[in-house]
């Protein structure tokens, strides 16, 4: 007998902390490229750690369920991550889905990552393994790099060091500032993040 989990669409749960422009790109791609029909996968929810995250209203306008797990309401990272895992499980009760970090400004605990091992993806604004962490564009410019970019990778317990799924290269132009470079990199992020997720779904046999 086929279980309900195996026949229902594979849930994609997107985590945001702000506007969620990458979230918006993913939701649009899921609609335009018919992920539900092609891969039996759908954006099941958008969850934020900030009640005032602007992306929540946009997601609700698209008919995507939303939820808030306010990190300030919990005494520790572990307590927050446990509550976050419970919120995700409400939309992915069978543990088949993909957790997508889209501007989610929290460092996840090893326990959370282990619980969702192989099913968490992130996008980082550099060509990993170069420039993990913060202030990537400023660091690339100061280092005299000719190219910057973005990387989609699986999340592991080591920050910004998971297996790479997709990358985009963006030239650093004379006179670039961190802000101008960030804007061009973000344009590429909106292209490669949905593409990497679609490949993950295809390989996972969604």
From TrEMBL:
One of its GO terms (molecular function) is phosphoribosylglycinamide formyltransferase activity. Catalyzes the transfer of a formyl group from 10-formyltetrahydrofolate to 5-phospho-ribosyl-glycinamide (GAR), producing 5-phospho-ribosyl-N-formylglycinamide (FGAR) and tetrahydrofolate. (6R)-10-formyltetrahydrofolate binds at residues 77, 105-108, 122. Keywords: Purine biosynthesis, Transferase. Belongs to the GART family. Residues 12-197 form the Formyl transferase N-terminal domain. The keyword Ribonucleoprotein does not apply. Its EC number is 2.1.2.2. Pathway: Purine metabolism; IMP biosynthesis via de novo pathway; N(2)-formyl-N(1)-(5-phospho-D-ribosyl)glycinamide from N(1)-(5-phospho-D-ribosyl)glycinamide (10-formyl THF route): step 1/1. The record marks 160 as: Raises pKa of active site His. N(1)-(5-phospho-beta-D-ribosyl)glycinamide binds at residues 20-22. It comes from Tepidimonas ignava. Gene3D superfamilies: Formyl transferase, N-terminal domain (3.40.50.170). One of its GO terms (cellular component) is cytosol. This is Phosphoribosylglycinamide formyltransferase.
């Amino acid at each position: 007998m086929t279980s309900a989990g195996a026949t229902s669409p594979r849930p994609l749960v997107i985590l945001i902390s702000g506007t969620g422009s990458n979230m918006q790109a993913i939701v649009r791609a899921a609609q335009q490229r018919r992920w539900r029909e092609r891969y039996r996968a759908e954006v099941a929810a958008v969850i934020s750690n900030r009640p005032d995250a602007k992306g929540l209203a946009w997601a609700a306008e698209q008919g995507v369920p939303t939820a808030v797990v306010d990190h300030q309401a919990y005494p520790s990272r572990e307590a927050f991550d446990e509550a976050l895992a419970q919120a995700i499980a409400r939309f992915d009760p069978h543990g088949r889905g993909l957790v997508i970090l889209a501007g989610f400004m929290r460092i996840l605990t090893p326990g959370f990552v282990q619980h969702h091992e192989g099913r968490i993806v992130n996008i980082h604004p550099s060509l990993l393994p170069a420039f993990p962490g913060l202030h990537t564009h400023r660091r690339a410019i100061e280092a005299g790099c000719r190219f910057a970019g973005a990387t989609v990778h699986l999340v592991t317990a080591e920050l910004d060091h998971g297996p790479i799924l997709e990358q985009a290269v963006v030239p650093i132009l004379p006179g670039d500032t961190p802000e101008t470079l960030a804007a061009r990199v973000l344009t590429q992020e909106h292209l490669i993040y949905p593409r990497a997720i679609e490949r993950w779904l295809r390989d996972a046999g969604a």
